[in-house]
Amino acid sequence: QAKQLGKNRCQLFDIELDHRLRGQYETLTRLKQALEQDEFRLFYQPKVNLHTGQVMGFEALIRWQHPERGLLAPALFLPALDQHPLEVEVSHWVLRTALAQAASWKAQGHDWTVSVNICAQHLQQPGFADQLEEYLHQFPGLTGQDIELEILESSILGDIQQASRVIRQCQRLNVRFALDDFGTGYSSLAYLKQLPTHWIKIDQGFVRDMLNDQDDLAILQGIMGLAQAFEREVIAEGVETFAHAKALFALGCLYAQGYGIARPMPVDQVTDWVLGWQAQPWSFH
Ligand code: C2E
Ligand code: MG
Ligand code: MG
Ligand code: MG
Fold first, then answer.
1. Which is the closest atom of ligand 1 to the Cα of 118?
2. Distance 6 CA to ligand 3 centre (A)
3. Sign of dihedral through CA atoms 226, 228, 233, 235?
4. What mean pLDDT comes out for the span 100-115?
5. 259 in ligand 1 pocket by Cβ < 6 Å?
6. pLDDT, tens digit (0-9, with 9 covering 90-100), for 156-213
7. 90: which residues sit within 8 A by CB, 6+ positions away?
8. Cα(18) to centroid of ligand 2, in Å?
9. Cβ of 207 less than 6 Å from ligand 1
10. Is 23 exposed, middle or buried (CB count within 10 Å of its CB: 0-12, 13-18, 19+)?
11. Is this prediction's ipTM beyond 0.90?
12. Of all protein residues, whose CA lies closest to atom 33 belonging to ligand 1?
């Protein structure tokens, strides 16, 4: 009896597992198709200097223009790619598309940097820096200074040594890195110490309630102190209001990105947005 029950339970479990795996398989097949059929899009969110009000550049953020379901946020499909070889293929598409955009803006006389989120799996591919150099060469006039790479500290996956080596190799191409979502990983301080990134990007989780949460404010002050000691530049993400920007600037944070400045937008809206911003920028003295 008990054995029978156990067996049934086991079967039940297998059916669930089967459904899950089948679902994952179908999602991956669909994502592969999306790449082949050119359904991914990059949206661009500005980064500004709070002192001068200048537009520094844009972060490229992936979207999936799904034929039936509409525009999908990365949280809805990136997790399905986690650790799958297709994740690297998508990341290559993002990198090449963002470099093409950076080259095009540069050719139009803009000096905006384009930031690209690089997943750990892509960064850890053998020859990452050589590949990047090759990509840069494919766009005449584009140099390493025109792009930045954002890496999630929570995705470095243990091999800090290798990540650090790759960062150094890319630095020879004058490509700068940002430690993204800083403060949310399990060992932020170890990453800060061992990864020579130019930027620290403060996670929006600390910014959101900074105006009324003393603990978040204390953490932000601490991050600013660390950044100074380690000689890193700081940008805050999730800057939703003018008051946030003002308070961040008062803490010594010179750069900001967030809905209060602009939401991520399709590339054809960028020049109009810039004109509007330049007419009325946020700049603190
Ligand atoms: P992230 O790199 O930390 O990017 C910032 C995310 O915060 C973006 O979400 C952006 O739309 C959102 N955001 C910006 N300002 C505000 C704000 O003021 N308030 C709030 N509530 N949110 C704000 P998005 O575009 O949904 O991207 C989510 C994450 O997905 C990104 O976080 C990044 O980790 C990942 N991601 C996006 N595109 C790519 C990509 O091309 N490659 C890789 N590997 N990851 C990507
Ligand atoms: Mg990012
Ligand atoms: Mg971030
Ligand atoms: Mg974030």
1. 44
2. 46
3. positive
4. 98
5. yes
6. 666 889 999 999 999 999 999 999 999 887 778 989 999 999 999 999 999 999 999 9
7. 31, 35, 40, 62, 81
8. 34
9. no
10. exposed
11. yes
12. 117
pLDDT at position 20 is 66
Alpha helices of 143-281 — where are they, by DSSP H? 160-171, 188-194, 204-207, 214-229, 242-250, 270-279
Residue 149, token pair as written in the block: 């790479």
Identify any residues that bridge with 255 across adjacent strands, giving them in sequence order.
Answer: 49, 235
Q: Which bound ligand lies closest to the C-alpha atom of 88?
A: 1
- Give the span between the Cα atoms of 155 and 188, in whole angstroms: 11
**How far is ligand 4, taken at its centre, from the CA of residue 247, in Å?**
19
Question: pLDDT value at position 14?
Answer: 62
Task: Taking residues 106-125, report their average pLDDT.
Answer: 96
SS3 content of the chain, % helix, strand, coil (to 5): 50, 20, 30
Q: Is the CB of 74 under 6 A from ligand 1?
A: yes
pTM above 0.90, yes or no: yes
CA–centroid distance, 117 to ligand 1, in Å, is 9
The CA distance from 249 to 252, in Å, is 5
CA atoms within 13 A on the CB side of 41: 16
**β-bridge pairing 40-49 and 199-202:** unpaired
- CB distance 97 to ligand 1 below 6 Å: no
What percent of the chain has pLDDT above 90? 82
